[in-house]
């Protein structure tokens, strides 16, 4: 299967790597080139002419959308640009997708955080500009009969140290803790973290199912950011006293809902995803710790 992956960042790259390992032919598409073994093509997904040309030229069997700005604080400061980056892009892809399997990676931020958990039947009520933009993108994809909206909770995994601007909470905590730096995290913002490898595996499985319009993917454990940071410290052998808790309203998580938690009534029941194992944060920490400490390379 040839899959066009629109968005070549942390999640898009992991999906491409997974599909390649499964024998597929992933093609990453973004505005700027990326250093990757996966094939890449230039695409401004907000340009309808460019979208039509890329789909016509590459003739993908499936499309995965992992596009648009995902920094909640930036989106709140730039709501118009956030809306354009998500809704317009989804509209452009919907116009050229035809009958292709199309998966949109969406977010837990489409909910207001009032409930401890949100399943596929929970009505969306975005709390911030990012959530509103993602919900608008979801609605654009409703025009594609073979589309699936895959809402994911906070995604985490390994990132290399050299960037210095890590895209996921685990990596940011791990590198700071390893350097003996303080980590400040809210003790009143709850999430169901999901490993990026598991997101990639579920995405690959969903591409084979044409009868799954909406699916939620969160990790099996609900945890506060502060407790998660302490667990990361424990897994790395770092001093847990380096983690300081604070109210959500004081720091960079003020724009997040109190509960960015997802549950699913469909994940384990649909034939395409029934055999997949979603790891909890402890299993994820055990898996990732050797990479962040360098012990994996010494084995």
TrEMBL record:
It comes from Actinoplanes utahensis. Pfam families: RmlD_sub_bind. PANTHER family: NAD(P)-BINDING ROSSMANN-FOLD SUPERFAMILY PROTEIN. This is RmlD-like substrate binding domain-containing protein. SUPFAM superfamilies: NAD(P)-binding Rossmann-fold domains. It comes from the Bacteria. Residues 1-268 form the RmlD-like substrate binding domain.
């Amino acid at each position: 299967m040839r899959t066009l992956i629109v968005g070549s960042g942390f999640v898009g790259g992991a999906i491409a790597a997974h599909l390649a390992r499964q024998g597929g032919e992933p093609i990453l598409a973004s505005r700027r080139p990326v250093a990757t073994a996966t094939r890449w093509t230039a695409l401004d997904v907000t340009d309808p002419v460019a979208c039509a040309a890329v789909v016509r030229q590459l003739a993908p069997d499936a499309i995965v959308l992992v596009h648009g700005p995902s920094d909640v604080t930036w989106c709140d400061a730039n709501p118009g640009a956030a809306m354009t980056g998500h809704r317009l892009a989804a509209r452009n892809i919907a116009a050229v997708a035809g009958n292709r399997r199309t998966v949109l990676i969406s977010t837990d931020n489409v909910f207001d955080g009032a409930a401890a958990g949100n399943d596929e039947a929970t009505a969306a009520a975005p709390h911030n500009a990012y959530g509103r933009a993602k919900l608008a993108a979801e609605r654009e994809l409703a025009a594609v009969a073979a589309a699936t909206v895959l809402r994911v909770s906070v995604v985490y995994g390994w990132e290399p140290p050299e960037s210095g601007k890590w895209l996921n909470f685990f990596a940011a905590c791990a590198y700071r803790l390893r350097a003996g730096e303080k980590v400040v995290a809210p003790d009143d913002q709850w999430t169901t973290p999901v490993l990026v490898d598991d997101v990639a595996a579920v995405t690959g499985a969903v591409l084979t199912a044409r009868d799954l319009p909406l699916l939620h993917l969160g990790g099996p454990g609900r945890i506060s950011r502060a407790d998660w940071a302490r667990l990361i410290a424990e897994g790395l052998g770092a001093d847990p006293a380096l983690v300081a808790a604070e109210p959500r309203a004081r720091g960079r998580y003020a724009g997040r809902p109190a509960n960015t938690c997802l549950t699913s009534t469909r994940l384990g029941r649909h034939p395409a995803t029934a055999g997949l194992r979603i790891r909890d944060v402890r299993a994820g920490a055990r898996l990732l710790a050797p990479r962040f400490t360098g012990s994996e390379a010494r084995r």
